[in-house]
Amino acid sequence: MPDDASLSADGRSLLSWAIVALFLLNCLNYIDRLLFSVAQEMIKVDLHLSDFQLGLIGGPAFAILYTVFSFPIARAADRGRRVGIIAISLTLWSAMTAFCGIAANFVQMLVGRAAVSIGEAGCTPASHSLISDAFPAQRRTTAIAIFAVAGPFGAIVAAVGGGALIAAYGWRTAFLICGMAGIVMALLFRATVTEPPRSQPRSHHAASFIDTVRQLLARRSFALVAVAGGVAGIGSYANQQYMVSFLMRGHGLSLANASALMGLVIGGVGIVFTLLGGPMMDLGARRYPRIKAWLPSFGLLWCGALYAAAFQIPTVGLAVALMVLGSMGQHFYMPAMYAHGQDVAPPHMRAMASAVIIATSSILGYGLGPPLIGLASDILGESARVSAGLSLAECAKQAVAACEAASAQGLRLSLSLGSCFFILAAGLFALASRWVVADVHDHDRH
């Protein structure tokens, strides 16, 4: 791992391009991931889906294979050439994004999104491992924050650009265009990014998969932070999946306007506060090492309370304002979570550390968040419909305003309930702060 003083001008230039390239491919990662959320109201109508089916496509269909494949790909990244692994992963998920553009039914879309997840499983672990070997420890959280801020930046592109593209040309064209753009980026990345040397030689007697995971989870702060990230993900990924639908159903906005506001809440705020969070924690940790747990804890407590209120506000302006304020607190936890994994993991386990965090985030966040909130929305919406004295036949035959109001009410209540998971995650981050310093020092001794 280089230090700042040892880098030549050419070395700094190569590092700069590497982080830019990783930023761009992570943008595509989130664009392809969020495009479904932006388009889902149109997809729901075209493919005749329920909120629960939308949740299955956006949740378990993505989470299960994403988790399963993240471990062997991370294992390969800890031993092989990460640049090639990342390029192959990007090619696969981009091709499958294009396939989603021709899906004709629920099963085909489910299979397409599951295949996207296999490709995306290779992005983050290999990228974190590459960043950790390319940047010195005192700049690592900032570098990971730059990589992570591609998420909210990609959310803006998916929401604003994707929303406009879908409104103008339809959701199928949008999926095809995004898929082709990713294939071009994969070729560029493979041709221009250089594999950095590893921090230490690869061992010929590498620990087994189970032993590696056991060693990582033995660090209590790592285990708690990983679970906290997953619990926060339940609320985060549910909001990501249903925010456009909420604004369209609950406040009567058009797709273009709803997706633009989603871009502001998730993307615009996320860029600023993810970028602020990394340097703040790097600087603060020099005097207060526990800040990497306390700042995410405070932020999640803040966002949980504000999101819960936002989904119940009847006026769109105030609701969006509260979501923006809530989003400010939400974006501290992700760079802190991944950076802590890199801080406590030995160099030959860094990709696996990211994979463990991804697994908990995927299984808990993606796996439970969208389908749980979608199912709650269907149940609560059905309850509101029955209370209004409306039959399914009446709702099916014509767009009855009361039926739409019942559906909107179900989604409002389910999203407010989902905000409680942010508060639970805040408690887990606070608990993890007890062992943050000891676990980092234990890693440094070894």
Automatic annotation (TrEMBL):
<keyword id="KW-0472">Membrane</keyword>
<dbReference type="GO" id="GO:0016020">
    <property type="term" value="C:membrane"/>
</dbReference>
<dbReference type="InterPro" id="IPR036259">
    <property type="entry name" value="MFS_trans_sf"/>
</dbReference>
<dbReference type="GO" id="GO:0022857">
    <property type="term" value="F:transmembrane transporter activity"/>
</dbReference>
<keyword id="KW-1133">Transmembrane helix</keyword>
<feature type="transmembrane region" description="Helical">
    <location>
        <begin position="258"/>
        <end position="281"/>
    </location>
</feature>
<feature type="domain" description="Major facilitator superfamily (MFS) profile">
    <location>
        <begin position="18"/>
        <end position="444"/>
    </location>
</feature>
<feature type="transmembrane region" description="Helical">
    <location>
        <begin position="415"/>
        <end position="437"/>
    </location>
</feature>
<feature type="transmembrane region" description="Helical">
    <location>
        <begin position="85"/>
        <end position="107"/>
    </location>
</feature>
<keyword id="KW-0812">Transmembrane</keyword>
<keyword id="KW-0813">Transport</keyword>
<dbReference type="InterPro" id="IPR011701">
    <property type="entry name" value="MFS"/>
</dbReference>
<feature type="transmembrane region" description="Helical">
    <location>
        <begin position="221"/>
        <end position="238"/>
    </location>
</feature>
<feature type="transmembrane region" description="Helical">
    <location>
        <begin position="52"/>
        <end position="73"/>
    </location>
</feature>
<dbReference type="InterPro" id="IPR044770">
    <property type="entry name" value="MFS_spinster-like"/>
</dbReference>
<feature type="transmembrane region" description="Helical">
    <location>
        <begin position="144"/>
        <end position="168"/>
    </location>
</feature>
<feature type="transmembrane region" description="Helical">
    <location>
        <begin position="351"/>
        <end position="369"/>
    </location>
</feature>
<dbReference type="InterPro" id="IPR020846">
    <property type="entry name" value="MFS_dom"/>
</dbReference>
<protein>
    <submittedName>
        <fullName>MFS transporter</fullName>
    </submittedName>
</protein>
<feature type="transmembrane region" description="Helical">
    <location>
        <begin position="316"/>
        <end position="339"/>
    </location>
</feature>
<dbReference type="Pfam" id="PF07690">
    <property type="entry name" value="MFS_1"/>
</dbReference>
<feature type="transmembrane region" description="Helical">
    <location>
        <begin position="174"/>
        <end position="193"/>
    </location>
</feature>
<feature type="transmembrane region" description="Helical">
    <location>
        <begin position="293"/>
        <end position="310"/>
    </location>
</feature>
<feature type="transmembrane region" description="Helical">
    <location>
        <begin position="14"/>
        <end position="31"/>
    </location>
</feature>
